[in-house]
């Protein structure tokens, strides 16, 4: 009997090797990867510069604790943060959101938080409490109090934001929730309401950030100006990392002793993150935008017309194919695995695609052809 707790419904595949956007399983079967390890290995599986940076750091020092100066973390924060923000490093998306919730409450002196239905922010208590999925909270009560949920993309939910609200936490493209793209006007109205009520706006870019939608942060396309930004997943291309960035006006709420963790800013992880950020140039992001446009065109031409496809949503290389009830997304994923393509699901019978950002056009074409066959 396995000694692993049964928290994941695993596929009967063990991935043992990877090259760029291809993965190889223990039987030598090769797959086109449209998952990036759930939005993590955005720069693929064999990025030499990242490997070199990590190897170089491994040969010096791995870990020093945060009691000592960490120039590697300084360098990553410089590259990661927009002007007027400071970063706190941790090890995952859920921890980044924990830090965001804590600093928001401390900086405002208020405790009420607002999340959105089908927003996903993680599994630890604070992040779980602001996550808008009732079923994944089952059995874990009592959760963090003073949290209310609004409907995503619904103007009525803006009425929930008042002068008593500490912060609103949201994704501008909900990932796990079904690849739901925020409506530009709604996001603008939400931001205006936050400003008018002195409510902090936390944008969770854990899945949508680090180039996934063709921009360093997805909120850039919606002209948003968050007070707090969280990232994780793609930041170190597969080594565990998270970051919470707070505007300078809020940042002093986290003084010495107010928050911390043992591994955050670990030098090996920072070596990888530094390389990721070095490669995330405006030119590279333009290539992602172009591939996103190409993928969306392929989907519009070949997948949208299929009888069992209800609609397609997404931004850049973050895509949801919404299937009709006649076909189960789990079956489509299995068929695609048999046919050498790895894909993901999201809420609502959605086939989710998060290909490595370095995937090439012919691989995208091949993958879409195989998806078409699987759906037919
Ligand atoms: C938007 C978003 N926030 C937070 C998380 C939690 O990140 P982690 O699993 O690294 O804790 C996820 C994970 O899927 C996510 O998609």
Automatic annotation (TrEMBL):
CDD domains, A to Z: OAT_like
Keyword Amino-acid biosynthesis set for record: yes
Chain segments annotated as coiled-coil in the UniProt record: none
Enzyme Commission code(s) on record: 2.6.1.11
Requisite cofactors: pyridoxal 5'-phosphate
Enzyme class, broadest EC rank: transferase
Pathway: Amino-acid biosynthesis
SUPFAM superfamilies: PLP-dependent transferases (SSF53383)
InterPro entries: AcOrn/SuccOrn_fam, Aminotrans_3, Aminotrans_3_PPA_site, Class-III_PLP-dep_AT, PyrdxlP-dep_Trfase, PyrdxlP-dep_Trfase_major, PyrdxlP-dep_Trfase_small
Record Pfam families: Aminotran_3
Keywords annotated in UniProt: Amino-acid biosynthesis, Aminotransferase, Pyridoxal phosphate, Transferase
Gene Ontology terms, MF aspect: N2-acetyl-L-ornithine:2-oxoglutarate 5-aminotransferase activity
Keyword NADP: no
PANTHER family attached to this UniProt entry: ACETYLORNITHINE AMINOTRANSFERASE, MITOCHONDRIAL, AMINOTRANSFERASE CLASS III
Family: Belongs to the class-III pyridoxal-phosphate-dependent aminotransferase family.
Protein name: Acetylornithine transaminase
Source organism (scientific name): Nicoliella lavandulae
